[in-house]
Amino acid sequence: MINHYITNNELITLSNIKAVLEEGIFTITLNRPDKLNALNHQTLSDLKTLIEDLNEHPEIRAVIITGAGEKAFVAGADIAELAHLNPTQAKETAQFGCDIFNTIEQSSKPFIAAINGFALGGGLELAMACHLRIASENSRFGQPEVNLGLTPGYSGTQRLTQLIGKAKSLELLMTADMITAPEALELGLVNHVVPATEVLTKSKEILTKIMTKSPTAVKGVIACVNAYYTVSVDGFAYEIETFGNCFGEADFKEGVAAFLEKRKPAFAWS
Ligand code: COA
User: Fold this and answer.
1) How confident is the model at residue 172 (pLDDT cuts 50, 70, 90)?
2) What is the pLDDT of residues 30-81, one digit of tens each?
3) Is 78 helix (H, G, I), strand (E, B) or coil?
4) Shared-domain flag, residues 232 and 149
5) Is residue 268 part of a domain?
6) Are 166 and 186 in a shared domain?
7) 125 is catalytic
8) I need a surface site. Which of 136, 138, 204, 268 has the fewest CB within 10 A?
9) Quick one: 113 and 8 in the same domain?
10) Contacts for 226-233: CB closer than 8 Å, 24+ residues apart
11) What is the pLDDT of residue 1?
């Protein structure tokens, strides 16, 4: 839990993560570059700490997740740690990671994965839990778990299939092939590919644009799209409900008034 108000430019340092808030954008850097930012339990715990109570932090409007160093976003779950798990512990580990990734996907604040190199296994799973993915030209993507005698455990089989379809998903999952950033773009796995030096800039540019829109509507859009992928929810009905609810919100009054008065809307994100 982040139990204090975070001020602009304050560097937060946890064991394996550093984070900073700049103009409403909270940039979280996974910080184990010597292990290509592999997700060990401590790193996942740090990530959980930073994101679990985001709604109580109005000063944070949007989040970027990236990796330290020039080589990797995240090269997967920490294989050295996995090596010692029995089936019960492995299921607990998978559930722990899935809960964190679900929190990201269901967050009302937009998350971007700024992918700056290898996004493999748990790294790709983390990136896929974010709402958007911006990749550097040198990024590489894959789910290489079958090389280790494993299936993915942080929802990789589910989100990869949602994003790129069954045929390509099965191919990547069964072959463990690594694909390039242009290939990932063509498959719809990432939103944009940019030079490595521009990954954070592009991510911030997109979030800054989103932050000029209605936060109520942005939250609603995320929830509606997530509803499409939630078996127990009728996404079409959910959208009607969400649309209707917008009409009782201050953002709707501001958005419509601004249009009629021929001015830009001023939405309050805090
Ligand atoms: N878990 C634990 N440690 C990892 C890791 C992972 N997923 N990925 C990389 N590392 C560590 C390496 O063991 C090495 O540590 P060391 O210097 O103490 O030996 C360090 O990170 C650098 O990795 P290295 O393999 O030397 O870099 P490379 O450029 O030769 O290869 C990869 C890069 C990404 C191709 C290679 O590291 C790799 O295949 N990693 C595992 C990917 C994977 O299977 N992920 C899914 C896990 S479920």
Assistant:
1) very high
2) 999 999 999 999 999 999 999 998 988 999 999 999 999 999 999 999 999 9
3) coil
4) no
5) no
6) yes
7) yes
8) 268
9) yes
10) 226/105, 226/106, 229/162
11) 54
Smallest CA separation from ligand 1 atom 18, residue: 35
> Where residue 174 sits, what CATH number does that domain have?
3.90.226.10
266 is a domain residue: no
Range of the domain at 246: 215-260
Atom of ligand 1 nearest to the CA of 36: 21
CA of 42 to the centre of ligand 1 (A): 17
Share of the chain above pLDDT 90, in %: 94
pLDDT average, residue stretch 17-24:
96
- The model's pTM is 0.97
Let me know if residue 172 belongs to a domain: yes
* 56 is known as an active-site residue: no
Looking at the structure, tell me whether residues 41 and 83 fall in a common domain. Answer: yes
Examine the domain organization and report whether 54 and 188 are in the same domain. yes
> 102 and 206, same structural domain?
yes
Residue whose CA lies nearest to ligand 1 atom number 36:
75
In a domain, 85, yes or no: yes
Q: Give the pLDDT of residue 110.
A: 98
Ligand 1 site residues (CB inside 6 A) read 35-36, 38, 75-80, 118, 120-122, 144-145, 147-148
Q: What is the pLDDT of residue 2?
A: 67
- pLDDT reading at 243 higher than 90: yes
- CA–centroid distance, residue 181 to ligand 1 (Å): 19
Please work out, in degrees rounded to the nearest 5, the angle formed at the alpha carbon of residue 118 by the alpha carbons of 117 and 119: 115
User: Considering its fold, how many domains does the chain have in total?
Assistant: 2
Q: Are residues 97 and 221 in the same domain?
A: no
Same domain? 63 vs 129 = yes
Q: 87-106 vs 215-228: helix axis angle to the nearest 10?
A: 140
Centre of ligand 1 to C-alpha 60, Å, is 33
